[in-house]
Specification:
The complex is a heterotetramer of chains A (355), B (74), C (216) and D (253). Chain A has helices at 8-18, 34-45, 56-68, 79-94, 121-125, 143-160, 170-174, 201-204, 217-237, 257-272, 312-321, 340-350, and strands spanning 4-7, 23-26, 49-52, 73-77, 99-105, 136-138, 163-169, 176-179, 209-210, 241-244, 251-254, 277-282, 284-286, 302-307, 326-331. Chain A has 355 residues and is an alpha/beta fold. The longest helix of chain A is centred in the middle third of the chain and has 21 residues, at 217-237. Chain A is globular. Chain B is an alpha+beta fold. Chain B has helices at residues 18-22, 56-60, and strands spanning 4-8, 28-30, 43-45, 66-72. Chain C has one domain (4-215): Rossmann fold. The longest helix of chain C has 18 residues, at 164-181. Chain C has an eight-stranded parallel sheet with strand order 3-2-4-1-5-6-7-8, with helices on both faces. Classes of the chains: A alpha/beta (355), B alpha+beta (74), C alpha/beta (216), D alpha/beta (253). Chains A and D meet through α3, α4, α8 and β9 of A and β2, β3, α2 and α4 of D. β4 (66-72) of chain B pairs antiparallel with β1 (2-7) of chain D.
Chain lengths: 355, 74, 216, 253
């Protein structure tokens, strides 16, 4: 299929339809509004469900209900709205339900602003809801990658019976880029959802319950340990990342999403001058791609974390680094997007340094 | 002559007393001389001959303890 | 070109880039950004560039609010409609929802003959990839703005991947819509990187991208 | 002598003991819902939504598919289920803290959208589960663990009447308030439930039956005194009756 020119939000919405999304529940918030707008028109056309809820809280609980009755469900929002959804996300994980959540991040804290940011890193990877839980979180860089992971996420969510989040900043939601909407993506062999409360206990001959309540602490712990096994499996199997110009790099940038795009253009310019700099680009921010840091070349002496936030991912870099390399950080916040030259200047501070 | 009878699932009874107050012929009472499996004083029928099988006791019972049968002519 | 150009179309069709290019290349007096749909990549984000080229930017009622999605529009937006000394380009938000803002100026439009109301079309946008869809969009835009569409712009592109054949493919489909509606193609915009010697329908203008950063 | 069964425990409830306190009318209401589901043949397609509060474990009791919802969100969860499973019979079972306080937005908007679901609302004017705190429906001067001197209007406002409130919402189809304090009212309550589920099976939209209920433990009364207190105090403030019936299409707002 030929490429088309898509806006990020619109592309994610169409990708969800192509990924087999049965139902969408959402609430308006800038800068993700094109997602519900697109789906309000096109879901009905495809005989699927679209509901504009009264709040983000209601929307995520509608997701819970629909996912619990076996549907493939999507919700989308932006940072403060995702904060409101945390209650439902925790229940969805606790009840082992699959769903896909798109977060088009904007500046915070509070109402913040509508300009792009990566300030939800902690909210996404540490979770704002209660209890021990995780969700797979993709932080794609291009619209093609975004479209591909949205489609794949529905399978992954079903496979793990766990929510999957697509975490992009507002720039990716708002930008235009050519995309092949029908690019093949990996598919999983998925069992039937025999656990779902579909309203067919008569046909099934037994009744299904979707529950996150466990009255006996030992039962609850057992349930938590079972969930933990799932998270361990995700950590083992779902770390995704890209290594860019790493082979002889002295300084390795760690950056994701739009920040990785800017870093990429900085690295291109620096490489033309012979500066040895590369990038580790996390594609999943949870699980954090620890494997990418395992066998870096001898030439590396500094890891430079770049974020459109103030050192949230840098904490993960510190954890994985374990004192091996010099660590440096540069971030902008509040919706300010750095220029390529700014990044070049940052990298220059560290080249030629000692290990 | 009784018009019917009630069958009490004694071990499910929580001894709440609601049925006792609903019985129009006043034949129900809690048996305070004993406790059931749950530790409650269960329901008993004092004068079964007076039962009119109205089922009021069963209707108000929150724990579905009572089954009511009416006698029918052969 | 007419004294006033109003640009409409689907979002992502390239209206804002074209507005900025027209304002600068044609030395227009003002650019009026009426985009209440898009929160990013609006022509108001290049205020400095416009002002250094002598173009007055008219946008929100709030100053320094590039980070706002509030729809407040400056009342100065009506000036070119009443003052015949001013040349202007209006940049509307995408789709019929963006075009409806024109209704608030309806009573100021004294000289309709001065106005070109142009639909920007990129056939690589799925909502305008066929002649019938383009015609439907024209009808929707006219209905919500209450202004008759006077021309079409071929802006068919896949950004840096654009080649001549894409512009030609766009021309073919837009021409079809043009023939069915009688609305002419008035401009073809050509990506700057494309060093082409070919000529396309309408006036041909080289498009320099100002809004999207290089790394995008 | 031959016998004929006049009344037996319903198969609409799972054969296990209810967890409620002795004499709590939750049990009576559970039974009625179970009976109606069974008699109308709706168990096979039923999906109930349990809320938070004393009825949090109701997913163990209703003999059909069940989902447990976060506090107050049952109508949103039910919306999600009903939209993707329109042929199922979806009901929520909620108390007054759940429905009238934390879940106010969800209940109003589910009614407002005219969601084709049935809501069982149990109003006993107190938070039972968490230890007898004041509910939005607690009466003026009623003492609870968070209104130790009795509820005062100047601090806590007047008690909320949910059936009356929802009757002003254009999307709601059928609203009735009932009581289960004696057999006559129990029969009436069952009829109301039958009507509510019929509204759903006829795809006529949102229905809610509000039950005036009791809480002997947190009210600090015997079960029988609780019933009498409800009759003397709750029913005068929460009058029984049909608050909206748009099933004939003569009042759809």
């Amino acid at each position: 299929m030929a490429k088309v020119l898509m806006k990020g939000n619109e592309a994610m919405a169409l990708a969800a339809i192509k990924g087999g999304c049965d139902a969408f529940f959402g609430y308006p918030i800038t800068p993700q509004n094109e997602i519900p707008e697109y789906l309000s028109y096109h879901m009905e056309e495809n005989n699927r469900i679209f509901v504009q809820a009264e709040s983000e809280v209601a929307a995520i609980n509608m997701v819970y209900g629909a996912a619990g009755s076996g549907a493939r469900v999507l919700t989308s929002s932006s940072s403060p709205g995702i904060a409101l959804k945390q209650e439902g996300i925790s229940y969805i994980v606790g009840s082992e339900l699959p769903c896909v959540i798109i977060n088009v991040m904007r500046g915070g804290p509070g109402l913040g602003g509508i300009q792009p940011s990566q300030g939800d890193y902690n909210q996404i990877t540490r979770g704002g809801g209660n209890g021990d839980y995780h969700l797979i979180a993709f932080a794609p860089e291009t619209l093609q990658e975004t479209v591909d992971v949205v489609k794949e996420s529905f399978d992954l969510a079903d496979y793990y019976r766990n929510p999957v989040m697509i975490a992009v900043d507002g720039l990716i939601g708002q930008m235009m880029e050519p995309v092949d909407m029908d690019k093949e993506i990996p598919q999983k062999d998925l069992p039937a959802k025999t656990w779902a409360a579909t309203g067919e206990s008569g046909k099934r001959g037994s009744r299904n319950k979707i529950v996150s309540l466990h009255l006996d602490p030992y039962d609850l712990e057992k349930h938590n340990l079972k969930l933990k096994e799932k998270y361990d499996k995700m950590v083992e199997n779902e770390q995704r990342y890209e290594m860019i110009s790493i082979e002889d790099a002295e300084v390795v940038i760690v950056a994701y999403g739009s920040m990785a795009r800017i870093a990429r253009s900085a690295v291109k310019a620096l490489r033309e001058e012979g500066v040895k700099v590369g990038i580790i680009r996390p594609i999943t921010i949870w699980p954090f791609p620890e494997k990418a840091f395992e066998n870096l070349p001898e030439s590396v002496h500094t890891l430079l974390t770049l974020e459109m936030s103030l050192g949230q991912m840098h904490q993960d870099v510190k954890i994985v680094n374990q004192g091996r390399y010099n660590l440096a950080f540069y971030g902008r916040a509040g919706g300010v997007v750095p220029e390529t030259d700014e990044i070049i200047e940052q990298v220059r501070k560290y080249v030629g340094g000692n290990k | 002559m009784a018009k019917g009878r009630i069958i009490i699932d004694q071990d499910k009874c929580k001894g709440c007393d609601l049925c006792v107050h609903q019985c129009p012929v006043h034949i129900l009472e809690l048996d305070t001389s004993t406790t059931n499996q749950k530790g409650y004083t269960p329901l008993m029928v004092n004068d079964p001959e007076k039962c009119i099988a109205c089922a009021f006791c069963a209707m108000i019972c929150p724990d579905s303890v009572i089954t009511v049968e009416r006698f029918v002519k052969e | 070109m007419k004294r006033i150009t109003i640009l409409t179309g689907h979002y992502g069709s390239g209206k804002s880039e074209i507005a900025v290019n027209l304002a600068i290349q044609e030395n227009l007096n003002c650019l009026i950004d009426l985009d209440i749909i898009n929160p990013y990549f609006r022509s108001r984000s290049v205020r400095g560039l416009l002002e250094s080229n002598g173009v007055e930017l008219i946008e929100s009622t709030i100053e320094n609010a590039a980070g706002s999605d509030l729809p407040f529009i400056s009342s100065k937006g009506s000036r070119p409609f009443v003052n015949r000394d001013l040349s202007a380009v209006y940049d509307l938000g995408g789709t019929k929802h963006g075009a409806k803002v024109m209704m608030q100026f309806r009573d100021f439009i004294k000289y309709p003959e001065d106005i070109d109301f142009l639909v920007v079309v990129n056939i690589y946008r799925p909502e305008t990839d066929r002649a019938n869809k383009i015609i439907k969009m024209i009808e929707e835009l006219e209905a919500s703005s209450q202004i008759r569409v006077t021309g079409l712009i071929n802006n068919s592109n896949l950004m840096e991947y654009t080649d001549e054949s894409m512009i030609e493919a766009g021309e073919q489909i837009i021409q079809e819509a043009s023939q069915l509606t009688g609305v002419p193609i008035v401009y073809t915009f050509i990506e700057e990187h494309l060093k082409t010697t070919k000529t396309f329908a309408g006036e041909n203008i080289i498009l320099t991208r100002h809004l999207a950063k290089k790394w995008l | 002598m031959k016998t004929q069964t006049v009344y037996k425990p319903t198969d609409g409830l799972v054969k296990r003991d209810l967890s409620y306190c002795p004499g709590c009318t939750h049990g009576v209401i559970h039974k009625l819902v179970g009976e109606v589901l069974e008699e109308k043949g709706l168990l096979d397609t039923g999906v109930g939504v349990a809320s938070v509060g004393c009825s949090v474990m109701s997913y163990e009791f209703f003999n059909c598919d069940m989902q447990q919802a976060a506090h107050g969100r049952a109508p949103a969860v039910a919306t999600g289920i009903k939209r993707v499973r329109p042929e199922s019979t979806v009901f929520t079972y909620q108390g007054d803290g759940d429905l009238a306080s934390i879940g106010m937005a969800e209940i109003v908007h589910a009614a407002h959208r005219g969601e084709n679901i049935t809501v069982i609302f149990v109003n006993n004017a107190i938070y039972g589960m968490t230890g007898g705190q004041m509910a939005p429906t607690t009466l003026i001067d009623q003492k609870t663990s968070t209104s130790p001197r009795g509820r005062k209007q100047k601090d806590a406002g007047l008690p909320l009447r949910m059936s009356e409130l929802l009757a002003t919402v254009p999307g709601a189809t059928y609203l009735e308030r009932v009581s289960v304090h004696d057999p006559k009212h129990i029969r009436k309550a069952k009829k109301a439930l039958e009507k509510a589920f019929e509204v759903q099976t006829q795809k006529q939209g949102f229905s809610m039956i509000e039950f005036v209920s009791t809480c002997p433990v947190n009210w600090g009364m015997t079960p029988q005194d609780s019933l009498e207190w409800a009759v003397d105090n709750l029913i005068p403030y929460y009058p029984l009756g049909v608050y909206k019936d748009a099933t004939k299409g003569d009042d759809n707002g």
